[in-house]
Structure formats: structure tokens, C-alpha cells
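We were asked to recover a plausible sequence for a given structure. The inputs and outputs are reproduced exactly as logged, with field labels preserved.

PROBLEM: sequence recovery
POSITIONS: 270
GIVEN STRUCTURE:
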């Protein structure tokens, strides 16, 4: 289990360690893949990407503003600006990642002067309308995947989770929705720790006061592995060409034909 499938091939290369697989390699899951594997087939929703979710939110926002105009209610300042839909999409994404219940945003009853709607009330309406739209049309925002997976596994342990170990690799921290899912899996009897149903391999950022994955899981007393590494600094006088320069250096290192000597190349290969 990895944070993003963009890291999938990197992880497979690390596990392969220069060798080939005899038969099938290990399965690597993203949140979307986990949802597809664990949710009942007849309840699966079709995932949408950021542009699609942005279009849906613009549609809902436009309907909300039209309704306010018809009722003679002023919208909060800035809502009609061109950049507001992007701000709204970012806020909705955070609510989904933290699995915030819509009721947490309920209007508190404090009236605004001049017949103006409160921003929190407008956000509540858009958030609930967005969730309803997705459910009615069998769609799933990518940020919803952990929450939808938790709903799918509550009370029932899927067969594909039996007989193996799930490794969680590379998570610096977990969102609220992701932690709720992990806790639900533990409630299903999936033990965690070494030689259990789930094992976590998380980085240590070395930041005091940062609530990283280890702190979220209570892993402070578990084993910590450290391995020395070699750091290369590559500079370029031309800022626009620095990426080309880095790519060329990496290619030369991988091919063994660079300016670095054999000893340094062997260290990098390790």
C-alpha cells in the first residue's frame, strides 16, 4: 500500500533489487485500487479526477448562487470572483480527506447583517449537494476513496485480506479518513506490527512536534531502521537547464559511464 501509484514502479524496482520475479510480483495498491479490491462489486462507484470534480463543483456553485439571487440573499464577498472555484475545490478536498461529516458545518443560527448568508452555511450547502450528486450518479471523488473503503469493510472482512500481510510503505502522515480506515481494519481483527497482518514502513522526518505517521499509530517504541546514504549536489548556472542537467547526470550514473569513479558508482548502486 503506497500513497500514490506514481511511486509504484520505484517500489517494485526496490523490491526486485536488480533481480527478476519468478512468477507474479507483489501487488501494489493505491487508495483507488484498494477501494476497487475491497468494496462489493455491485456498490462500486466510478472514480473521477480533479478536472471532473472541478466541473461538478462549478455547476453546484452556479446553482447555489442563482438560488441566492432568486431569494434576494447576498453571497459572501469574493464568492463570485474567477478564482473562487479553485479555492472551493481545495476546501472540499480537505473536507473529504479528513472525512468531515456535513453536520459539522451546520449553520449555527447567528444571523448576518443585511440579509447576507454566512460562508459556513454556503459551504455546508455546496458540500452536501456535492456528496449527494456523487452518490446519485455512482461517482467517487478521488479524495473519498479511504472513506468509501471504510464504509465497504465495516463489519465484514474481505476475503482478499486473509492469508497475507499488508505493508504500508512511505506514508509520512495519514489523513483523518485514512486513519479511520486503518482503525476499522484493526477492528476487523487485522493485527499490526512485525509478523502481523499489517506492517508499517514509514519515514522519520526528524521534525519536533510534527504529528507524523509513527505518532499517529503510536509506533514510538517500535524498531527504527537507519541506513547511511550518499547525497550528491548538482548545480546549474542556468536555472532553466537544471532539470536537463540532473536528468543527464542520472542517466550517466545508471549507465556507469559518468564522471564518477567506480567506487562512487558502486556506493550509489547500493
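RECOVERED SEQUENCE:
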Amino acid at each position: 500500500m503506497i500513497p500514490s501509484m506514481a511511486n509504484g514502479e520505484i517500489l517494485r524496482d526496490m523490491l526486485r533489487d536488480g533481480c527478476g520475479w519468478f512468477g507474479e510480483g507483489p501487488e501494489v495498491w493505491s487508495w483507488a485500487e484498494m477501494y476497487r479490491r475491497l468494496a462489493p462489486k455491485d456498490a462500486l462507484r466510478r472514480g473521477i479526477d480533479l478536472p471532473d470534480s472541478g466541473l461538478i463543483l462549478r455547476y453546484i456553485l452556479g446553482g447555489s448562487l442563482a438560488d441566492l439571487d432568486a431569494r434576494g440573499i447576498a453571497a459572501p464577498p469574493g464568492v463570485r470572483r474567477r478564482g473562487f472555484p479553485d479555492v472551493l475545490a481545495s476546501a472540499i478536498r480537505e473536507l473529504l480527506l479528513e472525512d468531515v461529516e456535513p453536520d459539522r458545518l451546520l449553520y449555527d443560527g447567528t444571523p448576518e447583517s443585511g440579509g447576507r448568508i454566512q460562508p459556513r452555511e454556503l459551504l455546508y450547502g455546496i458540500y452536501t449537494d456535492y456528496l449527494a450528486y456523487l452518490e446519485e450518479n455512482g461517482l467517487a471523488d478521488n479524495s473519498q476513496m479511504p472513506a468509501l473503503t471504510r464504509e465497504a469493510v465495516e463489519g465484514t472482512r474481505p476475503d482478499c485480506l486473509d492469508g497475507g500481510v499488508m505493508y504500508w510503505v512511505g506514508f509520512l502522515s495519514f489523513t483523518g479518513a485514512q486513519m479511520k480506515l486503518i482503525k476499522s481494519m484493526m477492528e476487523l481483527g487485522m493485527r499490526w506490527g512485525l509478523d502481523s497482518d499489517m506492517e508499517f514502513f514509514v519515514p522519520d522526518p526528524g521534525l519536533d512536534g510534527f504529528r507524523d505517521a509513527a505518532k499517529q499509530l503510536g509506533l514510538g517504541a517500535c524498531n527504527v531502521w537507519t541506513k547511511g546514504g550518499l547525497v550528491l549536489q548538482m548545480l546549474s548556472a542556468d536555472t532553466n537547464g537544471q532539470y536537463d542537467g540532473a536528468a543527464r547526470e542520472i542517466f550517466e550514473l545508471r549507465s556507469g559511464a559518468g564522471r564518477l569513479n567506480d567506487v562512487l558508482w558502486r556506493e550509489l548502486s547500493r
